[in-house]
Amino acid sequence: MEKLAIDGGVPVRETKLSYGRQYIDDADIQAVADVLKSDFLTCGPKITELEHKLCKLTGAKYATIVSNGTAALHIACMAAGVGSGDEVITTPITFAASANCALYCGAKPVFADINEKTYNIDPKQVEKLATDKTKAVVAVDFTGQAVELDALTALCREKKIVLIEDAAHAIGTRYKDRMIGSIADMTTFSFHPVKTITGGEGGAVLTNSEEYYKKLLLFRSHGITKDEQDYKRNQEGPWYHEQIALGMNYRITDIQAALIISQLDKLEMFSKRRKEIVKQYDAAFRAMPEITVQQEIPESDTTRHLYILRIKPECLNIGRKGFFEAMAAENIGCNVHYIPVYRHPYYEALGYQKGLCPKAEKLYEEIMTLPLYYAMTDKDVADVIKAVEKIIAAYRK
Ligand SMILES: Cc1ncc(COP(=O)(O)O)c(C=O)c1O
Hints:
Blueprint (H helix, E strand, L loop, with lengths): L25 H11 L8 H14 L3 E5 L2 H11 L7 E4 L6 H8 L3 E4 L11 H7 L4 E7 L8 H11 L2 E5 L7 E2 L2 E2 L6 E5 L12 E5 L2 H11 L3 E2 L16 E2 L10 H11 L2 H20 L4 E2 L7 E2 L5 E5 L8 H10 L15 H5 L8 H9 E4 L7 H18 L2
Parallel strand pairs: 2-3, 2-4, 4-5, 5-8
Antiparallel strand pairs: 1-9, 6-7, 6-13, 8-9, 10-11, 12-14, 14-15
Helix pairs in contact: 1-8, 2-8, 3-4, 3-7
The protein binds pyridoxal-5'-phosphate.
The site of pyridoxal-5'-phosphate has 14 residues, from helix 3 and helix 4.
């Protein structure tokens, strides 16, 4: 048996492989440089150009781009009318922002457990938790896989709940041949550098509703309107504008918008490569009885943002922490997505307790995120698989 690097053996590779990385080419650099030489660094033509491009890509009627995915979730909740006394149902297996957006609005996040096979929110759990107080569901396409949109839309429609799809992981994913972005009442994206498409930072809210769209525009920029139709008073002159709501400054720059536009031209290429890597991982790990492979619903044609390795602790003499450390010693950078949101001290102080979502808590104990990004070579992928094999061989029960 090969000696593990953590025990003084030779690592599977000499250099560290990170778990995620952006891919920037000359066209991206040129697009950014062009904006820097132009008249507008913000509030310029790249904003509408990107919004049109996102609508064309997803089939949504309206897009509002913002400074990041968290801002997108916040104004989506505001547009949905989430407020004090309301409840917002979300998954615990997500980044904190998916629940924080409810807190920003004075509402209470309610956590629905996951489906143990797909790791996405379980619509049956959502149904059990929906009450008269439920204003919105924030459903997260975890790892890029679409949530069960048919079940969730039907449920939300019946109970008059606004469905916000947090698609921070899912740009490029299709649900039943429809691009993610036009199906839920509102869909949010993130353009953080580990995501499939990046602007450095950036986010978007997509919707088919003109009513939500008008609110999103207002909340993005201080609650100020320059649309005469919305004015409460008579115009006082050509400079006139009115603040008619309390909004934020969640605007994004033209510099970032130009980068996102240029990146979107590569979405298909990024998507194809990510799918190839996932296929290689899945094939290798399906052959290992010590590993559970994430299941996909047939409706989701997924552009995977994250690849989750789930170990079966009952088959191994090592837990997730030890496995993670052994991977790091082999020079394979991993991460963990996610600590169930309500297990964070901030949420515990709000009264959330361990045991709330047992399936999510079990998942958290057994997972780590493997490297997955466009520029990974087949050799990189093989190194990751080799490291997993090596560690399993050393700790197999
Ligand atoms: C599921 C999910 N929602 C929301 C966000 C927030 O996006 P951003 O980092 O762009 O604010 C993230 C970011 O990691 C995320 O993974």
